[in-house]
Structure formats: C-alpha cells, structure tokens
Amino acid sequence: MRNIDLLKLDYSRKIELSNSIVAQALQQCNNPAVSFSGGKNSLVVLHLLLQYKPDIPVIFTNTTNEFADTVKYVRRLAREWNLNLYELRPRWNFWKVVKLFGFPPESRYRYGEPHCCYILKIEPILKIYKEKRFDANFTGLTAYESRTRMVNFLLKGCVIRTRYIGRHRLPFEILSVKPIYFWNHADVLRYIEENDLPVNPVYRKYGLERCGCRLCTGHKGWREQLKRISPKLYEYVLKKIEEYGFDSQPNHAKK
C-alpha cells in the first residue's frame, strides 16, 4: 500500500495499522524510548506503546518554557500510570537563551534552527540518547501538522532507520517510528475519547489547538495567542524583544 493511501484508511484500519507498526518496531530494537510532550498526539502514542511495553522509557523535555499546567500534568500522569519517566532539563533556561541569542523569529526554521529549539529541546534529547544508548525513538508526529511533515511522510513513511534526531546526528543508528503519522486530528480525538485518556488541561484552559512552548515567538499566531492568554506577559515579551531582538544567527550545523 502506498503511503498516500494510508491517509484514506478508515479509523478502525488506522488503529490496526498503528498497532502493527508499534509491535513490529519493538521487535526490531532492544532499548526503545517514547517522546512525550504532554500533547494529545504524543498521549495517543504513549498509550499505544504502554499496551506492549509498560516499562518503556518516557522522555519529557522540560524546556523551562512549558506551561506550568503541562509540567504538572506530565508528572501527575507519571504517578497515575506508573511511567518510567525521564524529565530532561536544558543546561540554560529559556530567558538566558533568548538573552544570548534573541527570540525565535516567525517561521522559525526558514533560515535554520533557532538556538532556543536546539539548546532547550534537542540537545538534552541527544544527550540522553547517547548516555542510555536508546535505539528507537517513538513520536506522535502527524503528517497533517505541516507541509514539510506531509512531504516527509509521503516520501519516507512511518518507520525509518536514521542517525539523526531532527537535524542533528547521533554516533549510532536508531529506528525512528511515527505510529500515527497518517492520522488526522479527528482520529486523535476519537481515540482519546474511546479510551478515556486524561488530556492536558492547557487545551481547554487557554483554548489552544497545540500545547507547545509557552512563550514561543516562532509561529505566525504567537502574538494573538499570548495576548489572549496573558496581556501582561505579552507586553513584557514585547519589551524583551526590543531588548534582545530576534535570533539572527540560527544554528545550521548538523551535530
């Protein structure tokens, strides 16, 4: 079946295929890990993985730019579900990074990877993968989230062997697995409802569609979103942008 045809499957077939992807991928690795952001997509993938490997390492990167509710939610879920949680933290916090390099510009990957994305998120992940020698990375990415991800899905599919996490090179090969790459938003919501999964409260509290970094200025809607969530914080960020500027020297290197 062609990758494009997976997008057209009905919900029950998508569930079957995602379970098959998880089961087969686990047979191809010895030390897998699953990434968990606290978002809905990664919640679905986490739930799928736990049916097969309850003790799988769960990687949550606390960027220091998370919503406080997200951090509390992840820690609470770790207790309630008895997760093998690794909460990672970066060497510098968000405010030190933007002071040194500036805030991420809108369309943040257009000119390269902003320093905040690398230092706060990617670097801690690379570090633990090297330390623990994880050989598989399960994520909750879906093709519908961006044009780049759709193209990647159509060309490469849900499972590939690679030496890269994002744009950065590991000293060894891993299995990159995206079990719900072909799902749409309605599929995710249906799975959550049918399995009665607890959802991060930030979605409803702030009316968010995605729960990423709280003060990210790297997307077109950040001004409206932050102004709606906290007008005072929005004004503070504007002042800091005047002081620190935007990241004008993005991190291009593949490390």
What does this entry look like structurally?
The protein is α/β, with parallel strands linked by helices. It has a single domain, classed as Rossmann fold. Helix content is 47%, strand content 13%. The chain contains 11 helices and 6 strands. Strands 3-2-1-4-6-5 form a 6-stranded mixed sheet, sandwiched between helices. Helix 3 links the parallel strand 1 and strand 2. Helix 10 packs across helix 11.
Features:
255 residues, globular, single chain, six-stranded mixed β-sheet, alpha/beta
The end-to-end span amounts to 35 Å
What is the count of helical runs?
Answer: 11
Strand content: 5-15%
Stretches where pLDDT is under 50 for at least 5 consecutive residues are none
Overall helicity? 40-55%
CATH class: Alpha Beta
Average predicted local confidence, pLDDT: 94
CATH superfamily membership: HUPs
Shape: globular
What CATH calls the topology is: Rossmann fold
Structural class: alpha/beta
Give the SSE layout.
Layout: H1 3-6, H2 11-27, E1 32-35, H3 40-52, E2 57-61, H4 68-80, E3 84-88, H5 94-101, H6 115-132, E4 136-138, H7 147-156, E5 159-165, E6 168-177, H8 185-194, H9 202-206, H10 222-229, H11 231-244
Helix pairs in contact: 3-8, 5-6, 10-11
